[in-house]
Specification:
Number of domains of chain A: 1
Strand order of the largest sheet of chain A: 1-2
Shape of chain A: globular
Helix content of chain C: over 70%
Number of strands of chain A: 2
Strand content of chain C: under 5%
Chains: A mainly alpha (289), B alpha/beta (257), C mainly alpha (335)
Radius of gyration of chain A: 19 Å
Oligomer: heterotrimer
Strand order of the largest sheet of chain C: 1-4
Structural class of chain C: mainly alpha
Number of strands of chain C: 4
Number of domains of chain C: 1
Structural class of chain A: mainly alpha
Number of helices of chain A: 11
Order of helices and strands of chain C: HHHHHHEEEHHHHEHHHHH
Helix content of chain A: over 70%
């Protein structure tokens, strides 16, 4: 009897983690699909989102929904600036661009340590209490995270499918030359795509603040997982990122419950390497880099 | 005599699409063969399959009597089957002579370890190789560009360099992938003459994929015609020119275009 | 994806004789200066810095070797750490003299790289970089958690120093000469390698992988060779370093260090050999001279890396070229 409760909890946690991984991975794969940029600084934008969420919610007592909006906006705009100034120069040279994002990640992370110190700051749950269904009890805060992530993703999907900008981004992802010929301003699409991508990461960071606390180092693991998800789902594939994110979240939650988090981490990484050997372009991947 | 290259009922599918279906032909050691057909006929796929870049979905390919299916391009080269490419035909940052020296990598007869220690044996072998490469440059009218970066050369010169690199590997069968695409009529004619000369002086068999009809008719001993992935005709240029199926294939392609 | 545009070890194939003499003379002068250096200063800190510069230069050059086939490894520090752990544990648990431990470390990490390389090098471009990053993370995780062997985060203390013929290299000065010898050895080897047929194969793979394969060059084989040699050298040098620092924990060599090595290579310049050395010589002392900014070391590296990528993409080496007129400009392939 105890097992089913354990499993239910593991499933819930899996969805929560999966939601975060999906948001991270979708953003990461977006920049690759549209701009062919591997953004090693992606995790740091997650961290900036977490800090923004912390300052607005805890220090300035702003309603959480507004905090999320602010986090997305601030980090999104920052991302656009970064793309315009530091990444655009490397459009012709992917490897240099990748190394540039490495440098940016180092700068942002260590800058955060200088500004805010290395100590983790705890963040209170957004909602308290739990939802009881029969013998199962699900904490509201976790359910809220899942719902919020689902909503964010739905908005994102609408944006990509229905708005002019979203369609422009998809056109550029498919075939940059044709998009250019059709009059799409690639120079506007790229910063926007980057901004949207890191805004998704920031939202993930803000949502997960209460779950994992907030410090300059929180970005590393989500980025690692984003890599794993994206490799599983294929670089450039948004459906792959979604499926991969949820699957990985579930795998992690269940293996951590059974084997502990260390073994779980190692298993995930080995799984990725294994899959890459069998299918070098991921499970649902685009043509290789 | 046994054929140098036997292509035996090869097929190649991409998803549901049959790019090649049951294509067979053979090349004798003393021939220049042209692989032609309207656009989309499957010539490039056939070329890629035969040269080992892609695996056939079914069928066999035998070179000098031995199967080469599944072997890596570098293994196939050491058998004596060497190809050129349409695009990115050269090593752009390196000098012309270095380009050809790289083509000669497998035929340089020098010990790898020996070259680290710069033994006199390796120095001699490399000097010989370099002399051979210089001869190739001369044959292909590239000597004035010996120390220039390959990327700076004109389009026609880069094409010739691509052939020089391939020749440095001492091919028995040379496969040329649209060698005169983008060249003006005069350059194309020169190139045709060059191929004929090399064929005769070096005893190299040649298989080329081309759209340039005049070149192909004047240069090749035999033609293999593909259309929609299947072989529709094979024979001498005179026979092919009069072949109804071939004419219809080309006309049909024109109408559809 | 044009990896050759970023880091490829081009060495002039045949410089005319007079230039070769000039290089040789310059080399001798530098060597003499390096030998004499420690006699000019007794400042222990400067000696320590010099030691670090030499070791970092080897790390950078070994990474440059891997990069010469057009692959970038983000897990280089993991091989360094692996070599360090192997030699430290061999010395402490099996009483193996460090001088042999270093050799064993190099061989084991090199062999591990052969196995890993055969498997990983099938991945091209970006996927290879990502997987080396992940592999590096796996290693750090294992080092942190396999406490029975590595003592986890507490690390290994009291690692013995290298002993040559019963003579322990227990001072910074003595270690300096050993490090210098290792540096000269590695540099000579890599130089000879890059100018041999191996170098020719590596460069052709970096420049046009499809054409290299079609010229009969066995691309997978040479990629593995470069990866194994580069990683083995890094492992051996990690061992050398650990017998100098005499303390080792999972924090000693992390992803930040992998990034640092890449920074050195990029900053120094795209000729993997000179560039790696220049980059290491320039970047190693930098944080010390900017010590006013505590914790700003990494930021400074990051900013410099970015600045170099943006404004001086060919690295410090290109500055040198700017000042030295190239006579007979057409006589060698430009790197």
């Amino acid at each position: 009897m105890g097992y089913s409760i354990l499993l239910a909890q593991a499933a819930l946690n899996g969805l929560v983690i999966g939601a975060m991984y999906t948001l991270m991975a979708v953003g990461f794969t977006l920049t690759f699909g549209i701009m062919r940029v591997v953004n090693f600084a992606h995790g740091e934008f997650y961290m900036l989102g977490a800090f923004t969420g912390f300052f607005t919610y805890v220090c300035w007592d702003i309603p959480f929904v507004v905090c999320l909006l602010i986090a997305a906006l601030i980090v999104g705009i920052l991302g656009m600036l970064v793309e315009r100034t530091l990444i655009q120069p490397f459009r012709a040279d992917e490897m240099s661009g990748m190394i540039a994002t490495l440098a940016i990640s180092v700068i942002i992370q260590n800058g955060a340590v200088l500004l805010w110190g290395p100590q983790p700051r705890p963040m209170p749950d957004i909602v308290t209490g739990s939802l009881a269904i029969g013998p199962f009890s699900f904490s509201w805060s976790r359910l809220v995270v899942i719902a919020a992530a689902a909503l964010i993703f739905a908005l994102f999907w609408l944006f990509m499918q229905r708005t002019r900008l979203g369609r422009a981004m998809r056109a550029v992802a498919q075939d940059t030359e044709t998009a250019l010929i059709q009059g799409i301003r690639v120079n506007h699409v790229y910063p926007l795509a980057f901004g949207v991508s890191v805004a998704l990461a920031a939202l993930a960071g803000a949502l997960m603040g209460p779950v994992f606390s907030v410090s300059p180092f929180v970005g590393a693991t989500p980025m690692l997982k984003a890599f794993v998800v994206v490799i599983l789902g294929g670089l450039g594939s948004v459906p792959g990122a979604v499926v991969g994110g949820l699957v990985l979240g579930m795998i992690e939650s269940f293996t951590a419950t059974i084997f502990g988090s260390l073994v779980s981490d190692i298993l995930q990484l080995l799984l990725v390497i294994l899959i890459l050997l069998v299918r070098p372009s991921g499970l649902l991947g685009q043509r290789e880099a | 005599m046994t054929a140098l290259l036997e292509v035996d009922a090869i097929s190649r599918r991409f998803g549901g699409l049959n790019a090649l279906k049951d294509v067979s032909f053979a090349i004798q050691p003393n021939e220049i063969i042209g692989l032609i057909g309207p656009n989309g006929a499957g010539k490039t796929t056939c070329f890629n399959v035969v040269s080992g870049v892609m695996r056939p979905s079914s069928g066999a390919i035998r070179f000098k009597g031995r199967s080469i299916v599944g072997r890596t391009p570098s293994q196939i080269v050491s058998e004596g089957l060497v190809r050129t490419f349409q695009a990115t035909t050269v090593f752009p940052q390196s000098t012309v002579i270095e380009n050809v020296m790289r083509g000669a990598f497998t035929t340089a007869n020098v010990s790898m370890i020996g070259s680290i220690f710069n033994t006199s044996a390796s120095r001699t072998a490399l000097a010989e190789t370099e002399a051979r490469c210089d001869l190739l440059l001369e044959r292909l009218a590239l000597t004035p560009f010996r120390e220039r970066r390959a990327g700076e050369l004109s389009y026609g010169a880069q094409r010739r360099l691509g052939v020089a690199i391939a020749l440095a590997a001492k091919p028995v069968l040379l496969m040329l992938d649209e060698p005169v695409a983008g060249l003006n009529p005069e350059e194309a004619a020169d190139f045709g003459r060059l191929i004929r000369q090399l064929h005769e002086s070096e005893n190299i068999a040649v298989l080329l994929v081309e759209h340039h009809m005049r070149l192909v008719m004047g240069l090749c001993h035999r033609l293999v015609v593909l259309d929609h992935g299947e072989k529709i005709a094979e024979g001498s240029p005179v026979e092919i020119r009069a072949n109804r199926k071939v004419i219809e294939a080309y006309l049909g392609a024109e109408e559809a275009a | 994806m044009d990896a050759s545009g970023v880091i490829a070890g081009h060495v002039e194939q045949r410089a005319p004789s007079r230039r070769r003499w000039r290089f040789a003379v310059a080399g001798f002068v530098l060597l003499a200066a390096a030998l004499a250096l420690p006699q000019l200063t007794t400042n222990q800190f400067h000696l320590h810095l010099a030691n670090l510069m030499l070791l970092n230069a080897i790390f950078a050059v070994s990474l440059g070797l891997i990069a010469s086939v057009g692959q970038i490894s983000l897990g280089h520090a993991a091989f360094v750490a692996a070599g360090a752990y192997i030699s430290a544990l061999a010395a402490m648990n099996l009483k193996i003299p460090p001088i042999f431990g270093i050799l064993i470390a190099g061989l084991v990490t090199g062999f591990a790289a052969v196995l890993l390389g055969k498997v990983l090098l099938r991945l091209r471009g970006v996927y290879f970089v990502l997987v080396t990053f992940l592999a590096g993370q796996v290693f750090t995780l294992v080092a942190l958690n396999w406490e029975s062997v590595t003592h986890g985060a507490n690390g290994l203390v009291g690692i013995p120093a290298i002993s040559l013929f019963g003579f322990p290299l227990a001072t910074r000065l003595r270690f300096y000469y050993f490090a210098l010898a290792a540096f000269v050895l590695v540099l000579t080897f890599v130089w000879a390698l890059m100018r041999s047929q191996y170098g020719r194969a590596f460069r052709s793979i970096a420049e046009n992988i499809r054409l290299a394969e079609s010229s009969g060059i066995d691309v997978s084989h040479y990629q593995v060779v470069a990866f194994a040699l580069g990683s083995g050298i890094a492992g051996a040098t990690g061992a050398i370093m650990v017998h100098y620092i005499r303390f080792l924990s999972p924090d000693s060599f992390t992803f930040n260090d992998s990034v640092a090595y890449i920074t050195m290579l990029v900053v120094g310049g795209r000729t993997g050999l000179i560039g790696g050395v220049l980059g290491a010589l320039f970047l190693t002392p930098l944080p010390e001279f900017l010590r006013g900014f505590v914790g700003a070391q990494h930021i400074i590296y990051g900013v410099i890396l970015l600045a170099v990528l943006l404004f001086l993409p060919n690295g410090l080496v290109s500055l040198g070229r700017f000042f030295v007129r190239r006579s007979g400009a057409e006589t060698e392939a430009s790197p």
